[in-house]
Amino acid sequence: MNKLQKKILIFLIILDLLTPAGILLPMAFNANDAWGEWSAETVKGLIGYVPDGLQKYSKTYKAPLPDYSLNTNDASTTHKSIYYMLSGIVGAAAALGVTIFISKIIIKK
Predict the structure, then answer these.
(1) pLDDT per residue over 34-45, tens digit each?
(2) How many CB atoms lie within 10 A of CB 20?
(3) Contact predicate 87/68, CB 8 Å
(4) Beta carbons within 10 angstroms of residue 73's beta carbon
(5) Can you give the three-state secondary structure of 60-108, one letter per residue?
(6) pLDDT above 70: percentage of residues in the chain
(7) Contact at 8 Å (CB) between 19 and 82?
(8) Phi and psi (nearest 5°) for 58?
(9) What's the DSSP call for residue 58?
(10) What was the pLDDT predicted at 51?
(11) What are the structural domain ranges in the chain?
């Protein structure tokens, strides 16, 4: 691993450690949900209607960890923060894996 890669990795680790801010800041400002993580019902309450695309696809995808918890009845901020960080790590690892896979295909050609 070269010097630039190490700096990027350290930066990404720092960003991942900051991810609980996505849960903590909305709680601090009584915002209920993290920005952009709204259900169709919440969007309707905010802007008065549900955009067609959101209405069409809102029931299609179900999050693997709804509300960033294995137990949706658990309101512990600590648990949610840990699951939030784990979600970030899993997402980053998946993106990295796909990027490496695609780059290997491109390099072969």
Answers:
(1) 777 788 888 898
(2) 19
(3) yes
(4) 6
(5) CCCCCCHHHCCCCCCCCHHHHHHHHHHHHHHHHHHHHHHHHHHHHHHHH
(6) 92
(7) no
(8) -65, -25
(9) T
(10) 93
(11) 1-30+67-109
Residue type, 106: I
Structure confidence by residue, pLDDT tens digits, 88-98: 788 888 888 89
Stated length of the chain: 109
Q: Is residue 76 left, alpha or beta, with left meaning phi > 0 and alpha meaning psi from -120 to 50?
A: beta
- Single-letter amino acid code for the residue at 36: G
State the amino acid at position 87 in one-letter form. S
Count CB neighbours of 78 within 10 A.
9
Residue type, 42: T
